[in-house]
Amino acid sequence: MVLLHPFALCAKAWDPILPDLVRRHRVFAGTYHGHFGGAPLPENFRPSIASSVALAAAEMDAAGIERAHLVGNSLGGWLALELARRGRALSVVAFSPGGGWESGSAEETRLHGLFKRKRKLLHVGGPFAPLIAASRRVRRFGIREIVAHPDRLSHEHATLLIRAPGNCAAYDGVVDAMPREPPPLPLDPLPCPVRIVWGTKDALLPMRGYSERWRRLLPGAEWLELDDAGHVPMYDDPAGCARAVLEFTAAHAPHVRESTAPGRAARTVNGSASAIVSSRREPTLTSTTGHPESRSMRST
Question: What is 2-101+185-297's CATH topology?
Fold first, then answer.
């Protein structure tokens, strides 16, 4: 299993659900180039989805991973879908994938403007992340678009969600390139089973306005709504997120193991901890596929 984190965060964004995933799969979670804890951007790198997918594929190659279950969030969800297009996925679970807005729409303009406004705040606030995270009022202001319930975060998690974007060397280039990014192409037929999961309280990419394109481009994909969860739902509902992933990999690829070179229990990839552990038996769970509407999912 390969985990692809959101833009401006890092591999540690998966920490809330990583223990559940590694009990069932061998997991590879690396940090993108130019992101907090990751390797520097390659010389003359021009940000785009195509170039980022190429880097991600190269990282999979370097780790000896031919095909795997891909799990992504936000930008990571978009990358997972594009890697699937290249035949690198056994299955895809994408949490609030980017790219679902319409080109030239009010939603695209809003998102680009939001990232530009955040840029100065992140550069100033990043070095003071522990202090900002200590104040629940300031924390709410700083990361309200990332999680639905900033008050529930531990100080460690809140600090990461503030510090990582403030130390993302790729931030400016990615934001400046957004208006030039071509729209994704249809995936019809799907190259593998695909599940799209959206938090009902996603304030960064609300489902209405930011998912319609993917609904057209991914016929046959399964759609779930994760109740009371924000854009990075691993922090709002880790149990629900883990279940959304594990029930899907169990139901759609129960007899296929990821093609991964043997690894140690943990190692460093691009400067961030990446867990690689032995697969365990899959849980017996069921799901529905291909329904045109979303169904709700609540953690208990």
Answer: Rossmann fold (3.40.50)
